[in-house]
Amino acid sequence: MKDKIVNGMQIFARAIIVPILFLPIVGIVLALSSILSNPTIFGQGSFLINIGKFIASGLWPILGNLSIIFCIGISMGMAKEKKAEAALVGLFSFLVFLGANNEWLTLTGKLVKYKVSSDLYGTGQTLILGFQVIDMGVFLGMILGVVVALVHNKYCNKEFPGAFAVYGNTKFVFIVLLPILLGSAIVLSYVWPVIALGIKALTTFINVSGPIGIFLYGFLNRFLIPTGLHHLIWTPFSYSNIGGELAVNGKTYYGAYNIFLAQLSDPSIKVFDPSAKYLQYGMVKIFGLVGAALAFYRTAKKENKVTLKALLIPAVATSVLVGITEPLEFTFLFVAPFLWVIHSVLDGIFEVAAVLLGVRTYGAGGIIDFLAYNLPAGIGRTRWPIYVAVGLVELPVYYFVFKFVIEKFNLKTPGREDNEVKLYTKKDYRDKKSKDEKQTNESGKDNLASIIVEALGGKGNIETVDNCFSRLRVKITDLDKLDEPALKTTGASGVIKNGNNVQVIYGPKVNSVRNKVDKYLASQ
């Protein structure tokens, strides 16, 4: 049962990241458009203000309709095959639910009367695509996406003989879903208000628990990274009412990330909402891990320092610039798990420190995101210099704590191994890539992709292939066929196994690796 639960969580975490991968692009462009639309920068009446508002108006509908985006993304992400059709059925299902739920609320006299949409704030109902329905936030899309995917995976290949053949396959999936959707539209009208009270209680607990709540949030968000389940921690706080609610310019926004972006467009807001406390988990990416890397280097054996430096420099740059930490974290996760616990504790402590000092920044990513979001917002509204100051303290603390623990307990961190362990550097990967490209030109095949596929047990052993920001996420049939050493020769910095779900850590180049694997599988 435990394995089934973990496996299900892995599949959901893998699927939910599919739509989330696009949202940073939306956020950064909105942040930049806020600069153009700020009259204090360009002056009242500037044509640039209208351009900024025009750009923002084209992107806000995405963040304002995350529920349907999650529904389609999860339907597609969890589908084992025929993903495009699963996404289309997800869209159909979402629209069916909206229409049915609105009609049920009307028939039962539960529809709340309003003059403007802001009147619905706090009533438990909202407007989605013109339908007045129960307010489930992004959870509606998540729930429907999971239901669609489960039904799709079970019935997408169901065929019928004769004249009924036209109703088979994914059409039959939609037929099966119809009574489920109609029933859900009724049941959730009564059940969700109770669930909403539970969510409100959870939010209240985290808020009233103050530093303890923030510490637990930060600790778990870091500690669960090896399992890939950390997405289930920060996602609801960023995009649902678990992370806060705020009305800006007559419209209600849910989740710390959405609230932050909404405030960017309103110059009248002097200090950003406290919900930003859920966005400070990137500090360790910019500062803390730099200190950890310095500790690894200083404690390494003299003969290993040159090789270790070649490994650490690109890994640190990846963490600082774009906020992808796995290439660095996985250099010590498996060889010194005790250090991983200390790492997670320190991360939680410094998030608490930043929040207690009044930080209201967007601090969830690397330095590029940090500058793009916070410079347009301004110092007064985000207090971003305090974030930097706390980070500059975090860096030496990480260095001295890591160095002390490594030496005290003689931990076999990178460069301190008793036996020679090959550390695959950036140069190694480039040489390997060059060799693979040469073999590709000679044989007409992508050798890197073939090694990955064979290391995963061959095409017949691979059920699904996806990726997140830094990991190739694969579900395989037989875990005994997995060849971890072979995977690490392809430039992977780590391999995680949870049941039959395998995560191969490639860092920022994961999209390129995923494309090669997809093309190779399609050609076989």
TrEMBL record:
Q: Could you give one GO CC term from the UniProt record?
A: plasma membrane
Q: Which BP terms does GO give this entry?
A: phosphoenolpyruvate-dependent sugar phosphotransferase system
Q: Which domain of life is it from?
A: Bacteria
Membrane-crossing residue ranges in chain numbering: 12-34, 54-74, 86-107, 127-151, 172-192, 278-297, 330-346, 353-372, 384-406
Active site residues per record: 468 (phosphocysteine intermediate)
Hey, what's the signal peptide range on this chain? none
UniProt keywords (A-Z) are:
Cell membrane, Kinase, Membrane, Phosphotransferase system, Sugar transport, Transferase, Transmembrane, Transmembrane helix, Transport
What are this entry's molecular-function GO terms?
A: kinase activity; protein-N(PI)-phosphohistidine-sugar phosphotransferase activity; protein-phosphocysteine-sugar phosphotransferase activity
- Kindly give the InterPro entries that the UniProt entry links to this protein: Glu_permease_IIB, PTrfase_EIIB_Cys, PTS_EIIC, PTS_EIIC_1, PTS_Glucose_EIICBA, PTS_IIB_1
Ranges where the PTS EIIC type-1 domain occurs: 3-418
| Compartments, record wording | Cell membrane
Record membrane topology: Multi-pass membrane protein
Where in the numbering of this chain does the PTS EIIB type-1 domain appear?
Answer: 446-524
Protein name as catalogued: PTS system, glucose-like IIB component
